[in-house]
Amino acid sequence: MPARPLVLRHLGGVLFGCFCLLTPHANAQEGPEKQKRPDAFRQLEELLPTPSATRTASGAPGHAYWQQKVDYTIQVELEEEHRQITGLEQIRYHNHSPDSLRYLWVQLDNNRMRPSSIGNRIAGAPDLSSGMSFKSLHRRLIRDSFDGGLHIGWVRHQGQELHTVVNDTMMRVDLPRPLPPGGQFEFEIQWSFQVNDSSQVGARTGAEFFPEDGNWIFEMAHWYPRLAVYDDVNGWQNKVFLGSGEFALEFGDFDVQITVPADHVVAATGVLQNPEEVLTKVQRNRLAKAMELGQDGPTMIITLEEAKANEASPADGVKTWHFQAQHVRDFAWASSRKFLWDCWGIFSGDPQTGEGHKVAAMSFWPKEAEPMWSKFSTHAVVHTLQVYSRYTFEFPYPTAISVNGPVGGMEYPMICFNGPRPEPDGTYSERTKYALIGVIIHEVGHNFFPMIVNSDERQWTWMDEGLNTFVQHLAEVEWDEHYKGWWGEPSQITSYMLSEEQVPIMTNSESLLSFGNNAYGKPMTALNILRETIMGRDLFDFAFAEYARRWKFKHPQPADFFRTMEDASAVDLDWFWRGWFYTTDHVDFELAQVDWYQLSTLDPDYENNILRERRDAQLESLQHERNTPLPKRVDAYPELKDFYDTYDPLTTTSQQQKEYLKLLESLDDWQREQLEAPWQFYILTINNLGGLVMPVLIDLEYEDGSHEMRRIPAEIWRKNSEQVKTLVLTERPVRKIRIDPRQETADCDISNNNWPPDIKPPTRFELFQQKKNAKTNPMQEANSQS
Amino acid sequence: MKHALLLLFVLPLLGWHHLLTTIAEVSFNADSGYLEVALHCTPRDLEATLSKDLKRLIRLDQEKNLDPLLEDYCNRHFQLLDAEGKQVPLLWVGKEIELRDAWLYFQLDVDGKWQDKTLYNDVLANLHHKYMNTVRLQLGNHKPRSLSFDAKHPQRALSPDLSGQNPSFSRQFSAILGE
Q: Tens digit of pLDDT for each residue in A75-87?
């Protein structure tokens, strides 16, 4: 390399934007300022819990990880006419913690439906600005009078009453003596409650009445006293249920006997143990056929005609349906004489080795949900299991069930409740069709998050809703083309991210503002950006699946997710978690300035010619133009002229020529070639106006119209998160530069991303008006051109 | 109940997993002096709120004369108010209703001056108390910004200088008197 630096020809610098953050010269005059910029790359250790033997710094469960286990044996009876539930449960609590426990906390979440519940009392005021309907008033009055809470008959251990204290939706059971580490404690609870009529009291559980035939559909959730989680992070997770933060539950085994009217059909978490007692021989044969692998679709177990006949003539007496479920965190069920039922047996496992098991994918629905449900529901269940398994782990449970009833969309282990139905005449809109498929994928998908990867919903809604909505999107785009672009485009979240009424994603479930955007939309978009733009699909997919694998059947916390994603990918994402999950900053890059340079040839003749051309190309000032014709004194008295009247500083001197030749002699061949090379140097100055740092994605449009994309990782902001400069070196001149042209980063204002600046892009309103004003439709236009 | 309305249909039940949000893009057209609004909501919820308002089942793809209904709805639930609390005229432009998206387009005649106006936005808020409406503002040379509206805070000033101040009038009160 030459001893002297290369000389660059500066072709121009353009400063854009009126929001430039920098005043470097002013700072220099006032004296050096200390570093006051936010450190976007500060590591998260100060925010995350200290790693321990239970949760490691890698994000994996540690060698001392433990969690409790709770087994239930339950007998429950549904009395249909009065919607009354009566139950008796035996609970075996396994203390795997290193602590002695003096009491246990039990969730009574149905107590949320007591008029005096905390959740009821803190409910916001309704909007009365346009009046109130009788129906709304009725619902309101019922909510203030209906008692849907769990009435505890007794709590006993070996026949002796245990002392209990109820605090809203939580019940403390005092133990007769401390339960030591490794110990077990068995006790029984007897309880009853009235099931809410969902047309009057909406909840995640309830009964729907069909006045045309006088029948009910029951969808039963949080219907029994459930043990709260005791873990290494919170001790007891015993926050009362206010209505938004859903559930935190321990894994265990369930043995449940459900007694219902004799003609009811029951769908439940787990596997039916007594088909001979509750199903007909025809139904059992159909089930056996449905479970033969290789079927190309679901088999009807109860047909439309059979369901119609069943609901038309209620039978006397009762039947008891017996289910068992292992390794589940909850148990839900549905019961009605209206149900149609189909089943499709699929294989979950490795088809190459044959290691795996059969899964019964099933749906239960009333005739009012036909024909949509027989066409789509079980297909959507199977599709969900297949796609989710690819991105996480093989579905481990023996059944996956979708039920239509009063609940719009809610998930439980192996079973979920989904609301969409067609019109009364059986037709349905395209929207209803996709609403049904979407909600089934979402709710069945919850089997993975949080039923198996068992995060704490009461504390962190995003950990199950955000992650599940993300995988839901992956499953939907594999359903059909219509789903293209429905979810996950970063541009869809920008308006929310600009908004003032926001809290960070890392906010307790009950304190979230704009619940859907915060807990579903923003985290799923964040994960999508990680996958598509920051990490790439290979790195992301492995790390995401590793998180799911590590925490399958365990209780992960946010730090376990954040750490695993880094641990499994070798990508430092602390800046990303910090910005997207702990702040309400948004993305707004501004391409503030572009400086363009070329290499000087050092040839004085050539360089002077360029400078002369540039000088001559400049428009003469108006004043100079008008003064030029004026007679000049030096013309009248030529003796006044001297060297300077003819001197042109851009005329090459012989000395300059000599020096140039000498320089050329000192260069080697490669160095001489570079002087002739067409290198173009563009220094881009980019301001960060929104606060979030992200990769800088630069689209170069060359003069010949071709494009090149350059992707600079977010670490470019590591020393200055407010402004960066980057060099773009090309062999061809660039005529346009765009930052993030495909809107990958959720940049909230793309009008300041271009050089040279664009004329303001049309708003959505203006685009609509242009379309509206068009005289022809697109088809007419195409026809006229052909 | 002076303003009680009897509903003759079953309101579609809102699922637990529902985004409960609308987004309006509002830009100022210096040539016309109007604010131009593109309001996005989900068709399903739009059907639900119109059905609730009109006391009959509304299906967007079956309603023969939908535009006047939508214009009337926007007039009542997306109101721009001047400093005296008087509603700025809303000029209906049109709609685009697709599978997942409903876009409503209209202008607000602010006569070139938006700075002293207050926006009242309770679109779809009667469906669920958690409904959050976001309005993205692109007003003149100001940086884009967003305002949030919900059932408890349905009213906000457009000017950043006035944001946080409570207008001295009550739109809700006038609406009740008007019905």
A: 999 999 999 999 9
Instruction: Name the residue range of residue B60's domain.
Output: 21-178
Q: Are residues A303 and A414 in the same domain?
A: yes
Q: Which residue has the tokens 């009424």?
A: A501
Q: How many CA atoms lie within 13 A of B79 on its CB side?
A: 20
Partners of A502 on chain B (C-beta within 8 Å) are: 148
Does any CB of chain B come closer than 8 Å to the CB of residue A434? Answer: yes
Asked if B76 and A130 come within 8 Å (Cβ–Cβ), the reply is yes
Would you state the pLDDT for residue A313?
87
In the stretch 132-171 of chain B, residues with CB closer than 8 A to chain A read 132, 134, 136, 138, 141, 143-148, 150-154, 163, 171
Those of residues 454-483 in A touching chain B at CB distance below 8 A are 465, 482
In chain B, the residue whose alpha carbon lies closest to the alpha carbon of A511 is B130
A468: helix, strand or coil: helix
Of A200, A221, A250, the one marking the end of a domain is A250
Q: What's the total number of domains in chain B?
A: 1
Task: Quote the crossing angle between the two packed helices A574-582 and A558-567, to the nearest 10°.
Answer: 150
Write the ipTM: 0.77
d(CA B91, CA B75) in angstroms, rounded, equals 9
A136 CB neighbours in chain B (<8 A) are 7
How far does Cα A339 stand from its chain's mean position?
A: 34
Report yes or no: A530 and A576 within 8 Å, Cβ to Cβ.
yes
Among A113-127, A306-320, A586-600, A716-730, the least confident range: A113-127
Q: What is the mean pLDDT of chain A?
A: 91
3-state secondary structure A320-333: EEEEEEEEECCCCE
**C-alpha–C-alpha distance, residues A215 and A403, integer Å:** 16
The number of residues making up chain B comes to 179
Same domain? A197 vs A297: no
> Which chain A residues touch B96 with a CB distance below 8 Å?
768
